[in-house]
Design goal:
- This protein is α+β, with helices and mostly antiparallel strands.
- It folds into two domains: 118 residues, no CATH class; 242 residues, Bactericidal permeability-increasing protein, domain 2, CATH 3.15.20.10.
- The protein is 22% helix and 46% strand.
- Strands 1, 6, 7, 8, 9, 10, 11, 18 and 19 form a nine-stranded antiparallel beta sheet that branches. A six-stranded antiparallel beta sheet has the order 12-13-14-15-16-17. It has a four-stranded antiparallel beta sheet with strand order 2-3-4-5.
- The two termini are 47 Å apart.
- 32% of the residues are buried.
- One of its GO terms (molecular function) is lipid binding.
- This is TENP protein.
């Protein structure tokens, strides 16, 4: 199996994206808002620190100009279509050029930023242009003395501000790297989201296409091939949400395939039946079991589960073989039944996890696969097994799915005001970003 998987993995690496996201202008404004206090702290450390090079003179030698306070009055991020982002920061500074006077000065930083992809496949925020300017707002000095002290060099130490300008935002590159981290689905199954290309910048927002990969027991597994290449739906300009995630039908089918490969869906189902009770319906059983013992069902997938998305509806199609038997630890099976069933699914998001839960079984088809007790009519199989399967299969599925699957996200931020809309072939998740106070 390991050799087979290793042969298949290279082909898997070239497949198309199966999910993605659009960060809207509203989301960008929120990121700017929560970066404001961080920006102020960074500038305060850089400019007020006694050991910092003199911002006003551009020289590491003190010129007598001391910056007493730093206050960010404005910070904005705007989209530059087909290019990247424009960062604009206005900072009010109180400067003491002489013991008896203070100057109020405005430091303005205008920078163009764009995203690049590193050789390791991570996204990185890079500065492409940066222009800081400084102007004097007011002075406590007398008019006469102002001209004599106006020889304060107002040039910015560009070498200090510009190389670090992207760090004025809230740890962007650390957060971007967290996007591609491995997240656990079950103890031996992990999911990872990998950007396929540099995000696209448009007036509607920043669109990123992602490829999902799963590892089972540390080995990447080849996923089912998507029948239709997935592309992010066109963003709607009317959306007030910070972020829209799109998850394709293939994404969900891959998730269930990975869980099946990890053995998460192998089910042992207790039954209210006993061998004596079943012998009353199937007479040949009397010769197999001399004592009355509990009947147990063991369900295994004979084909991978498949997620089906229609408008406003999600369903999981299950293709099981159920072995009916008794005995422990080894099950002595006397009947095997093919069971095809469809379960409605409910989707919800908490924090950054999507929880998938199976609702009622919608339809079921049973057929006899093998029997050691002669022919058994389908109607009798349904009478004996169906109530237990209808109750237990969703319950055991939900036990596996209860932890949910972590969605693509950057560290520290969670999702709130979530709205999920199911379309044919894909699911849209509209949500707002939230940075908890402790993280800020």
């Amino acid at each position: 199996l390991s050799i087979l998987l290793s042969l298949l993995v290279p082909a898997h690496a070239t497949r198309s994206p199966d999910c993605g996201g659009i960060l809207t202008p509203s989301g960008l404004s929120y990121l700017a808002q929560v970066s404001k206090s961080h920006t102020e702290n960074v500038l305060r450390q850089d400019l007020v620190a006694p050991t910092a090079p003199d911002l006003l003179s551009g020289s590491p030698e003190p010129s007598g100009n001391r910056i007493n306070s730093v206050k960010v009055t404005e910070l904005s991020l705007s989209l530059v279509p087909d290019a990247g982002l424009r960062l604009s920061v206005d900072v009010d500074l109180d400067v003491t050029p002489a013991p008896s006077s203070t100057k109020a000065m405005r430091l303005s930083i205008l920078a163009d930023l764009h995203l690049e992809m590193t050789p390791e496949g991570n996204l990185e925020l890079v500065t492409s242009a940066c222009k800081p300017t400084l102007e004097e707002l007011q002075s406590t000095e007398d008019i006469e003395s102002k001209s004599s002290s106006s020889d304060v060099d107002k040039e910015i130490n560009v070498n200090k501000i510009c190389p670090e300008v992207s760090k004025l935002l809230l740890f962007p590159n650390e957060q971007l790297m967290s996007l591609t981290a491995q997240f656990p689905v079950t103890p031996n199954c992990q999911v990872q989201y990998l950007p396929l290309a540099v995000p696209v910048f448009s007036e509607q927002g920043i669109t990123i296409s992602l490829q999902t990969t799963f590892q089972v027991a540390g080995m990447a597994i080849p996923l089912p091939v998507s029948p239709v290449p997935f592309s992010m739906p066109e963003p709607t300009s009317s959306s007030s949400s910070h972020l829209t995630l799109a998850l394709s039908e293939h994404f969900y089918t891959s998730l269930f395939f990975a869980l099946e490969m990890a053995g998460a869906f192998n089910m042992t189902i207790p039954s209210p039946l006993t061998t004596a009770a079943m012998a009353q319906k199937i007479t040949q059983m009397g010769s197999l079991f001399q004592e009355d013992v509990p009947v147990t069902l063991q369900a295994v997938f004979r084909s991978s589960p498949r997620m089906v998305l229609e408008e406003d509806k999600a369903a999981l199609k299950l293709f099981l073989t159920v072995h009916v038997g008794a005995g422990s630890p080894a099950l002595q099976s006397f009947v095997s039944v093919h069971v095809d069933m469809s379960a409605g699914l409910l989707l919800s998001v908490t924090d950054t996890r999507m929880t998938i839960s199976a609702a009622a079984i919608e339809d079921t088809d049973l057929s006899l696969a093998a029997s050691n007790v002669g022919p058994v009519p389908a109607a009798l199989l349904e009478e004996l097994l169906l109530p237990t399967l209808r109750a237990e299969v969703p319950a055991q599925l939900n036990e596996v799915l209860s932890e949910g699957v972590i969605l693509p996200h950057i560290s520290n931020f969670t999702y709130t005001n979530v709205n999920i809309v199911i379309h044919k072939d894909y699911v849209l998740v509209s949500c707002d970003l939230q940075l908890p106070a402790r993280a800020g």
